[in-house]
Amino acid sequence: MATVEQNACLREPYEQEYRIRRGDTGEIRHIFQQSDPVFGPDNTVIARRGFLQDITERRLAEDALKAREAELALAQHIARIGSWYRDVSSGQLTVSDEVCRIFGISPDEFDNTFGDYLNYVHEDDRAIVREQSEAIRDRDEIFEMEHRIVRADGVIRYVLDRNEPVINAFGEIIGRRGIIQDITDRRAAEDALRVSQRQLQVITDNVPAMISYIDTDLRYRSVNKTYEDFYQLPRETIIGMSIHDLLTADVASEATRPLQIALAGTPTNTDVTRTYPDGQTRDMSFSFIPDRQGDGKIGGVFLLGVDITERKAAENALRTSQSEMRTVLDNVAATIAYLDTDLRYRFVNQALATMLGLMAEDMPGMSLHDIASEQLFEQLRPWLERAMAGEQVAFDIERTYPVGGTRDMNFSFVPDLDAANTVHGIYILGTDITRRKTAEEKMRTSETRLRLITDNLPVFISYIDPNLRYRFVNQQYETAYGRSPEDIIGMRVKDVIGAERFSLAEPDLRRGLAGEHVKVEVPWPFHDNSQGQLLRTVVPDIGADGEVLGIFVLAQELEQRDGANEAADDQDG
After folding, report:
1. Dist. CA 167–CA 169, nearest whole Å
2. Distance CA 454, CA 554 (A)
3. CA dihedral sign, ordered 395, 400, 402, 407
4. 161 C-beta neighbours (distance < 10 Å), count
5. Per-residue pLDDT reduced to its tens digit, 383-409
6. Are 296 and 209 in contact (CB under 8 A)?
7. Chain-centre distance of CA 489, in angstroms?
8. Closest among 389, 386, 358 to 372, alpha carbons compared
9. How many domains does the chain have?
10. Residue 571 lies in a domain
11. Who contacts 223 (Cβ-Cβ below 8 Å, separation ≥6)?
C-alpha cells in the first residue's frame, strides 16, 4: 500500500485509509482521505485538495459485524442449525455451510437449486416437502415442518425446516429465508426423555432516528420521514413551524434550554420520556449539534432523536434474564463453570460449589490449582491444554468430591473464542453419569445372562425391527445358517432365510409389526426340499406411546422332517 507521501505526488485523484495517533490523547483513529490534484498553467501538480474523515466508528462497526457473523457461524455449527434463502423469481436456493454439513456434503457439491435440495429429502417425504414448499412460497406467513433426509453417506436424519417470507419495500414477497436444524437426536430421545430445548433468539431492532434542522428562530428548516411518522404530519407542514407550534407547551419548554446551549456553540445531549400524538409513550435520546458556519457563527442546530424504548426494555430484560439464568444454572443437574486463561474461575453454578463444599460467591478468582489435587490436575492437564488451544473436547473421568463422594463424571470443555480465534477461557460442563454407568453395567450383566439362556434353548429366538432387520439372534442361528449372531445382526430377514421362506414368513411378521400377537403352526420347507411343521410365535414390542418398536420371534420345529440330517439346520427367523 502506498504511503501518504507517495500518494501526494500522484497526478490522479486517490482515496486512502490509514491510522493516526491523536496528539492529545494518544488514541489510534482510522482516517479516510480523498484527494484531487490541482494543476498549474504548465499542467504540473502545484497542490492537492481533498478531505479527511474519521471513520473509526464505522471500522469498529464493520469489525463488530464480522465478529457477529463469525459467532453466528459458530452458533450454527454448535447448534447444528443451518440457514438458507430461496429467491422467488430465480428459484435459486442459497444455503449456509452448516446445511451442507447436515447433508454430509461439502459446499461446492450443492448446486444452489431446490431440486438438488429435494435430492437429499427421503423419498417417502419428498412429495409432501415439494408440495408444501411450493404452496407456501408466495404466502405471507411463517411455516415449519419436520421431515427426513438421506445424507450423502446413506444415513437417515430428521430435520426441522422453519422459514418466513422476505418482503421488499413495496410489500412484495421476493423470497423466503429459514433454517434447517438436525433434530435426529431429539426425535430419538423423545420416548425416553423429555428434553427442554433452549433456543437463543437474538432480536435486533432497527431503531428509527428523528432528524431535523432548527434555525436560530427555533423554526424547523428540514425534517426526515421518521419525523413525519412520529408527529403524523407531512414534512411540508412541519417545515417553517416553530417548535412551539409543533410541540406541546411543556415539551417545547423542555427543548428550549438544550437548543439555546447548542445555539451558543456547545453540543449537548438529553434523554426524555415523551407521549406522541398516536398516544404512545417513548423513551428518547436527543443530541443537539450546533451548525457552526464558515464565519464562526452558529446558523442553527442539527437535532438527532433516537428512540431508546426498546433498548431500555432490553436492558431491563437482560437484567431479568441474567437473574433468571443464574436461577436456572444454579438448579440444573450439572456442574457449570468458566475458567479464564490463567485457570481461574470466573463463574461457577451452585451445583459445583455444593459438590466442592464451597460457596458459589467465594469461588470467582480462585485458581483450579487451589481446588484440584495435584493428581487430578495432571489427569485434567491434557484436556485443558487442548481446550486452551481452541479444541472442543469431552471425556469421562472418575472424581472424588468433598460432598457426594466418588462419582463418574462426563466433562465437556468448550473454548471461548473471539472473531480472531483467540481463546479467552473455557466453558466447563460436568454431568454426573454414575447412575448411567451403573445401569450400563447392570445391562451388560443382564444381557450376558439372557444370551446364556437363549443360546441353550432348542428354539430360534430373534428380535426384528420395523425395517425387517435382525437386531438380536441366539446361537441356534449360527448352527442353522452358518453365520455368527454378530454377522446376522443388521442383516435383512430376507437375506438370511432366503426369498422363498421370507415370502412365507412375511405376513406373520407384518401382523406382529401392526401390533398383533401371532401364534401359528405352519408347514415349512427345509434346505433338503423336505417339509416339516413349525410353531411360530410373534410378539410385538410396544413402547410407552403405543408405537410398535419391533417384534420378538420364536420359531420351533414340531415334527422331524423326512430326509433331514439335522433338525435345526433350516429353521425360521
Report:
1. 7
2. 11
3. positive
4. 20
5. 999 999 999 998 888 877 776 578 888
6. no
7. 36
8. 358
9. 5
10. no
11. 210, 211, 212, 213, 235, 238, 239
